[in-house]
Design brief:
About 30% of the residues lie in helices and about 25% in strands. By secondary structure, the chain is an alpha+beta fold.
């Protein structure tokens, strides 16, 4: 049906110590064809191995990679948490609607060809700011597109997983420089939250 590639800005375990936020984003606009081909073919191999009956099911896979190696991490028979919104804003494709149309209408999913994979023309990302320890005493003006999950005068423990967030947002930008500018602004807002112990 469809094949999309996204990435974490940094390894999840490092986010708790370093940046204090989690970002899932459209892959770099210049993702090389060799890496794209390897990810696609390895995904096909895993799906053929585990899906012997040709079932239609949502899935996501996670991979570790560096300049030369791709290492399989996990596969889950569900769409990734934030990925559906990123796909919709980047590619104007509603993966949830497409999936349920296939399931409810007994549709037949068409195979995805390597050459038909859409390359992103913009960068879409989700930004989730982790909670700090203490009572939240100050929230700056966050703007309309940021969803606050923490409340003023509530006491919090430091985030222990990526679902425990002070705020989160989805954004789309046209370039890597705009992406970096948006992240800097969101980091500034994240650091402007005041917790008192």
């Amino acid at each position: 049906m469809a094949f999309f590639i996204h990435q974490y800005e940094e390894p999840i375990f490092q986010t708790f110590e370093n940046s204090k936020r989690h970002i899932t984003r459209t892959c770099y606009l210049d993702l090389n064809d060799n890496l794209r081909t390897k990810l696609f073919k390895n995904t096909q191999t895993i799906l053929r191995t585990f899906n012997k009956n040709g079932e239609i099911f949502p899935f996501h896979m996670e991979w570790f990679y560096d300049d030369k190696d791709i290492i399989f991490c996990e596969a889950a028979s569900r769409f990734g948490g934030k990925i559906g919104q990123l796909i919709k804003s980047t590619y104007s494709f509603d993966i949830y609607e497409a999936y349920w149309n296939l399931v409810l209408n007994n549709g037949v999913s068409t195979s995805v060809d390597l050459h038909s994979i859409l390359k992103p023309k913009k960068i879409s990302f989700s930004y989730s700011a982790y909670l700090n320890e203490g009572t939240l005493t100050h929230i700056p003006d966050m703007g309309a597109d940021i969803k606050m999950k923490a409340k003023i005068n509530e006491k919090y423990m430091q985030s222990a997983n990526i679902q425990q967030n002070a705020f989160e947002t989805y954004k789309s930008v046209e370039s890597e420089s705009e992406y970096r500018k948006s992240i800097s602004e969101l980091d500034r807002l994240n650091q402007s939250l005041i917790y008192q112990k």
